[in-house]
Design brief:
The longest helix is centred in the last third of the chain and has 21 residues. Strands 3-4-5-6-7-8-9 form a seven-stranded mixed beta sheet. The protein has a two-stranded antiparallel ribbon with strand order 1-2. Helix 5 packs parallel to helix 7. It is of the alpha+beta class and 309 residues long. The protein is built from nine helices and nine strands.
Length: 309
Amino acid sequence: MKKIACLMMMSAALAGCATNVSKRNPVPEDARRNAFGHEVPAGAPLDAQRIVSSQHPGVHRSMAATPWRVAHFRPNLNLPEMIDADVLNDTLTDEKAATLNRRLARSEAVLVTMPRLTLLPCDEGCVGNSDYDKMAKRFMDAYNDMARSSAVATRGEMKVKVRWFRKKSLLEGVNPLSLGQQAFGIEFPIEGNMLTLSASAFGDKAKLEDCVDSVALKFKAGVIFPLSLGLRNYYTLTLDPHYDPRAMERVNATLASPVRGLQSMLGQTDYSSRVEPITQANNALLPAIDGIKAGEGINVGQGKLFDSF
């Protein structure tokens, strides 16, 4: 396949595994005016814009059997994007594939754009907390690792807020029988709702660093990566009526209720990842990266918990 080398470079970059390079390439001129084949007006996303999907036929062709997996958005420059249409559409000629791979090897080509990330602190217990500052830096470093490759350029911005930050107290840390939790979670608007991605753990082996790393991976692999291909994020996708959960997800869903009941009996907080309606309290995170407003996406009622995440 002509595009395999390119997609491998992209995957490595998004996973934060690319070799560190000093050269930074600018966003190509066309990618400063267009997103997924659509012209982007000044100030986008705008309410007046139509909600559309990628104009690249390769995206729709690969999802022909599951078109509900294709992302819909108001075109704007905050969206992460695989900007080489030939790679997406599998229309690379032998000559262009060879040229592109040579340019990638010389750190001269940009394949992917990603937004600059602004991480807002939680409402209580974050500002002025040195432990929080360390974990916030850890999360941002994990995100920014995606741009270590010269094949990735930053374009636009995205705001994310820390919803949960909990580090075990000193007494909880020295007590091997403590049920005190370590927890980290972020929230942001997408598909017309608020998505929270989180991780928590308890016990003497629980590390807050592991929670932060888990959330960073969920965000990179489950949100940024699929969006860059013109696909829906993995989490709200699982709420679509067409989605067929795997056997393990069914097991998780069956066990989730009694596990949450046990947590409540033990006085623990339910830090499950979840999706909820957007409220006025979330205004600082708007506009959403996909430009979708409250109520324009899937109806989640009062909110839904993710049993598997």
